[in-house]
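Friendly challenge for the regulars: who can give me the structure tokens for this chain first? No prize, just bragging rights.
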Amino acid sequence: MAASANRATREADMTAQTRAAVWLDHHEARIFHVDLDGFDEQRLRAPLHHFHRHPKGSSEAHAHPEDEARFFADIARALVSADEILILGPSTAKSQLVKYFDSHGHALAGKVVAIETTDHPTDAQIVAHVRSHFRIPELRVR
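First reply, four minutes later:
Bragging rights claimed.
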């Protein structure tokens, strides 16, 4: 009886706590909120422009300065309800996102539990990885 009560308490804590993962590169972000009941996904595209910026040196950015900040702000808004965040992706966008959180004083910076380099997984592979990372059991069939 006590063992089933402890399991029920652990499961209630798990569903009450929101765990999220964001897979991102410089073109898009795929955000997943995962719990015992399932997951939801949101896709955000980085801003695209129809004209090219020609920097005056090799050290200047080729992108428009506001684009990255706007993209990261959109990601931050999508993650605001998360208690723990796993950041995944193939490129430097992962570390740039964390720097954005730090430099803009986001509370999200303290919620990042891991940053991992991954290629371009499918949605199902991301969800499976998130479930494994946070030790969330597979969906139960009733």
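DSSP finds four helices and five strands in the chain. The first strand starts at residue 19 and ends at 24. Your move, everyone else.
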